[in-house]
Amino acid sequence: MVHGSLFITCKLCSFNDMNKQANNQLIAITGVTKGLGRAMVDQFIEKGHTIIGCGRSQQEINHLKTIYPSHHFFVVDVSDGKDVQQWANQVIENIGTPEYLINNAAIINRPDALWNITEEEFSQLIDINIKGVANTIRAFLPAMIEKKSGMIINFSSGWGRSTSPEVVPYCTSKWAIEGLSQGLSQEVPKGIGVIALNPGIINTEMLQTCWGEGAKHYSTPEQWAKKAVPFILKLHSKDNGKSLTV
Asked: Which family does it belong to (predicted)?
């Protein structure tokens, strides 16, 4: 009887281990050094998934490597196509093709009328918020297509579906993300999903830039991530082409 119980226990442990491994998703996230990206890292890892993260701050990337040594963090400038391609090549060759590519990295313009925003400011925002998304897709999507599965989650905004004064460059970039996502969803083969995701209103540094103290009335990135991560993990290729909100 003891031997039988031991056998059943071992079988159960083995099943649980296999189930855990089957549920372990490889998730690539841009902009992981602060805000929503940083909060998602903690939640995905807590749920047993493997993170491939990138950001521009060497100091913050080093910190993430220290606290999460079994995960993978890189210094990458998403606005630099060659830098992104080198990152993707390294990831795909040495770690694997991600099941999820979450394009989170973005910046917002200083609040002002469009005609007061300099060409340099506007260009930097477009390079990160739009070209950065295109760069990661160009780098990772071919491997997803070869694998015949994968989800691309492009972070949009309420300002990607509406507009406000003094944030015209940011609105422009997020409206572009909506169009990019829907257009790409019509190009990808079966098994691939492309989603434009509005995260909602969260008390991030970006929101504080626009709303000041008013941002404190909204959820923190950590609170948001607790509901956003399960939401993202339920997305499937059948959701391809949808514009969703957490």
From this structure: Belongs to the short-chain dehydrogenases/reductases (SDR) family.
Taking the C-alpha atoms of residue 60 and residue 64, their distance in angstroms, rounded to an integer, is: 6
- 159-183 pLDDT, tens digit each: 999 999 999 999 999 999 999 999 9
- For the annotated catalytic residues, the residue numbers are 170
Name the 3-class secondary structure at 65: helix
Closest CA to 191 of 240, 136, 135, 231: 240
Continuous segment of H or E residues that includes residue 60: helix 58-67
Domains in the chain, CATH or no CATH each: 26-245 (3.40.50.720)
The model's pTM: 0.88
Instruction: Give the chain's mean pLDDT.
Output: 90
Query: What angle do helix axes 132-147 and 81-94 make, rounded to 10 degrees?
Result: 30
